Amino acid sequence: MKERHIYILLVIAMFLWGLSWPVSKILTAYAPPSVITFWRFFFVCLGSLVMLRFLNISLKIPWQTFKWVFLAGILNGLYMLMFFMALSYGEAGKGGVIVTTMIPMFSYVFFMLAVVLKKGDKLSKRVRRSEVLGLIVGLFSGLCLLNIGSPNEIFSKFNTLFLLCALAWSSITLFTHKAKGAHPLTINLYINFVSTLMFSWVLFLDDPFAALQSDVKFWINMFVLVCLSTIVGTSIYYYGIHRLGSVRANSFILITPISALICSFLLLNEVPSLLTLLGCALALFAIYFINIYGKAKFNR
């Protein structure tokens, strides 16, 4: 496949990821967050298993990776529960911007702290100027996205839950980075399987299958979330990393917060505030300087 075709696929994948925010908000109207979380993981596992067999990818993973897969699965379950809970308190588009822009910045901070604690190096030796600039810009973007001018909104359930989502997902990336020895899609399947088991208790609730008896709108949105956003989008992303490298492939993630705003506007008629748009723009610059500019310059 030519590179320009991979670029097109990655753009599509990032829009599919952005699409997951408004369709997930729609799904919250059909059942409690815990029930929607379980069925989301259940169908993702089924779809991922079909995808792996279709691509002829092995289901085997080394035993030593199971502890990292287990920890990532637990955090993945907590992330998705908080994700669906938070969507009931505010706009899907703004939530998509907060999470998708804060995750890279939290991940970078965690990574640098891990390096310093492990090797005992001074932080100044590890941080590039572009990364410092990115962190400063990222701080201002966070203040805009959380609406620093309104104390009540800063500590609202919406902001708190989505910040916790970003922290949880940033921690997941640390564990998945350690889970080596198998294909990323295989590891992703087992992580979602652990998350499914984590929420299997919902099967003992009163009529947990009621959501599955919902209208066509429910199934369309579940299909988009599970098959298109999660399975297809993630598969394209990993393929892009394999063909283009992590630096070039990860640069496309900058599209995700923008696509979340666009898709939320089209599906939910959510009009983002100027503060949200400003925070989004600043966050994109921050992610670029932290995760792309310095690495691209270093790898030349």
UniProtKB/TrEMBL annotation:
Membrane topology recorded in Swiss-Prot or TrEMBL: Multi-pass membrane protein
Subcellular location: Cell membrane
Transmembrane segments: 7-24, 36-56, 68-89, 95-117, 129-148, 154-175, 187-206, 218-239, 251-268, 274-294
Occurrences of domain EamA (ranges): 7-113, 161-291
Primary location group: membrane
Keywords: Cell membrane, Membrane, Transmembrane, Transmembrane helix
PANTHER family per UniProt: INNER MEMBRANE TRANSPORTER (PTHR32322), S-ADENOSYLMETHIONINE_S-ADENOSYLHOMOCYSTEINE TRANSPORTER (PTHR32322:SF18)
Name of the molecule in the record: DMT family transporter
Organism lineage: Bacteria, Pseudomonadati, Campylobacterota, Epsilonproteobacteria, Campylobacterales
